[in-house]
Amino acid sequence: MNNDEAKFILRAYRPSGRDATDPTFMAALTQAQHDPMLGAWFAREQGLDMVVAGKLREIMPPAGLRERILAGGRVSSPVRSEVRRRVFAWMGVAASIIAVLALTDVWQGRRAVAAQQNFAKFALQDTLRGDHHATHDQGMRAVMAMLGSDELALPGTLPFELSELKADGCRTLQFAGQETIEVCFERNGTWYHLYATARGALPRAWFEDSPAMLAIDNAAVAVWSDQKYDYAVVSPQGMAALKKLTG
Amino acid sequence: MSNKAFTQLVDAHYAPLYRFALSLARNQADAGDLVQQTFYIWATKGHALREVAKAKSWLFTTLYREFLRVRRRENRSSSLEDLSPADQDVPAEEIDRAAQLDAMTVMDSLQSVDEVFRAPLTLFYIEEQSYQEIAETLDVPIGTVMSRLSRGKAQLRIELSKATSGESPKVVAFNQSKKSQTS
């Protein structure tokens, strides 16, 4: 993706940050973080968006419009059922709940993206630090074979427990104060590194169906979650090799 | 629908609907009519909406369709998709200058943007709708929404630059525009 393509995508990014968890923006956001010129452009774009949005929301309807609408509605309202009356009574309650959830969502979304990127960087840095194959002992071979098989869809829920992997001699390390395992495996002639940590290191799993993909330097990483774990799989050979794995 | 429920619905949505209508119709009278008509349609048909949580989306979609219907009836032409994109980046000082403008001047600038870009831009700014929500409201593909946002923002920046430099934007009222095109 060149900068013009990134700009095209980022122009649809809402200045409140509500799109922070949308995978559509992930690659362009990452690019903006690593390219100072694109980053500066994005900051200016967001600044102007905030100013324009704020100004437009200051405009108030003319006096009397509300009363005209209400008068027109009363004249034209059909006879309503008790069921409908109850439905609309609940609408007010639902609107309040939705408003609270939406505010929570914005806050959690920002935290989630930061944590997701930290997990991705952690996995990438660990992979690029060196060759880990020798750290696995014999007990891990079955797991490596399972991960190396095309039968196992990635990303997806993986059929093992971290405690079992650890007992089998899997390499463990710490991410955000949590024990994290790392398994190297080979699929179709390409080596990958899988990292898994119990849910909790990331604020929530929002990318269960499609992984967030990030490319840093010549390596690439996909991050996703299931009910129990957060996962990152790294390809030191870049995005094309990673996409061979994730489809 | 009870009077109380209808009042709650109006109170929750009539102001943002009016801003959306004002950006489309480009004058207060037509904008007010559009909002009234939208709630009238709700009062007669909207109660049949099964998912009441979608009332807001329904109102915006209905207002937009009503605007298009009125415009078609009045035989206004639109070949605005053919316009070439005017793309430019935002200078840092542009943000400070825009912040000094009053709300109506910013609305005037928005109203000067071509209609095909104006509707998604308004939903983006006023309603803070995502590109997917805009696509649903306006019934256009997502890629088209992203393209229109990109090009619309470029046009809006030009209009804001005119406003900050003291040059009046070309605000044309809904009815006046109609006359000039049919004469």
Task: Walk me through the structure.
The complex is a heterodimer of chains A (247) and B (183). With 247 residues, chain A is of the alpha+beta class. In chain A, 50% of the residues lie in helices and 17% in strands. Chain A has eight helices and six strands, in the order H-H-H-H-H-H-H-E-E-E-E-E-E-H. In chain A, strands 1-2-3-6-5-4 form a six-stranded antiparallel beta sheet, sandwiched between helices. In chain A, helix 1 (3-10) crosses helix 2 (23-34) and helix 2 (23-34) packs across helix 3. Residues 78-82 of chain A have low confidence and may be disordered. Chain B has 183 residues and is an all-alpha fold. Helix content of chain B is 70%, strand content 0%. Chain B contains nine helices and no strands. Chains A and B meet through helix 1, helix 3, helix 4 and helix 5 of A and helix 1, helix 2, helix 4, helix 5 and helix 6 of B.
Briefly say what this structure is.
Chain A is α+β, with helices and mostly antiparallel strands.
Q: Describe the biggest sheet of chain B? A: none
Q: Which consecutive residue ranges of chain A, at least 5 long each, have pLDDT under 50?
A: 78-82
Average pLDDT number of chain A: 78
- Described by the principal axes of the CA atoms, the overall outline of chain A is elongated
* Percent helix of chain A: 40-55%
Walk me through the topology.
The complex is a heterodimer of chains A (247) and B (183).
Chain A: H1 3-10, H2 23-34, H3 36-57, H4 65-76, H5 82-129, H6 141-148, H7 162-167, E1 171-175, E2 178-187, E3 190-198, E4 212-216, E5 219-225, E6 229-235, H8 239-246
Helix pairs in contact in A: 1-2, 2-3
Chain B: H1 3-25, H2 28-44, H3 55-73, H4 92-100, H5 103-112, H6 115-125, H7 131-138, H8 142-164, H9 174-182
